[in-house]
Design a protein that fits this description.
Length: 191
């Protein structure tokens, strides 16, 4: 896997051997096409960060800072090694669960872009998708800037969740790339 655009384009990234499903280059490029105008000088939060590819890609393309949240110790070691590739002093790695991090994130300035790529669930098997919990914590904790965007990666196709965003959110885009579904949400205007 490699960084696909920007200043660090082409740099190879390490990936964990198991327990993580790295976002494919094609999907990352599609995501960054959606985010293109929002990247410069953005504060980016990468939840369920894995190898850190999303945050690294954002920094490569001009984001001001990135925060990675990952709980797996082995994966954290790989994430740290990947973050050293760009030697960014405006970034931080948080060893924590995404939900727990969001519950505590209310004392920080809001993020412009939040990306979440939790382990895929299978709606057919009755597995619980964390989307609603994430959206609710982000909205009530004011973790996302008013003009920010939340991007959610999940299983597509027959495994896709039919869950709709809770009140207070609007869907910006909902697309599938093979077996991957990318949805982007913004806070709804409360006028």
């Amino acid at each position: 896997m490699r960084i696909t655009g920007g200043q660090y384009r082409g740099r190879n990234l390490r990936t964990p051997k198991s327990g993580v499903r790295p976002t494919q280059d094609m999907v990352r490029q599609a995501v960054f096409n959606i985010l293109m105008s929002r990247i410069p000088d953005a504060r980016v939060l990468d939840l369920y960060a894995g190898s850190g590819a999303i945050g690294l890609e954002a920094l490569s393309r001009g984001a001001a800072e990135a925060t990675w949240v990952e709980r797996d110790r082995k994966t954290l070691a790989i994430l740290r090694a990947n973050a050293e590739l760009i030697d960014s002093h405006t970034s931080r790695i948080v060893a924590d669960d995404a939900i727990r991090f969001l519950r505590r994130a209310t004392d920080r300035p809001p993020y412009d872009i939040i990306y979440a790529d939790p382990p895929y669930t299978d709606a057919r098997a009755g597995e619980q998708d964390p989307l609603t919990d994430l959206l609710e914590l982000i909205r009530t904790g004011q973790v996302l800037a008013n003009d920010g965007i939340f991007v959610y990666e999940s299983a597509g196709g027959r495994r896709a969740s039919k869950e709709e965003p809770p009140e207070g959110w609007q869907t910006i885009t909902d697309r599938e790339y093979g077996r991957t579904r990318i949805r982007a949400f913004a806070l709804a205007d409360n006028d």
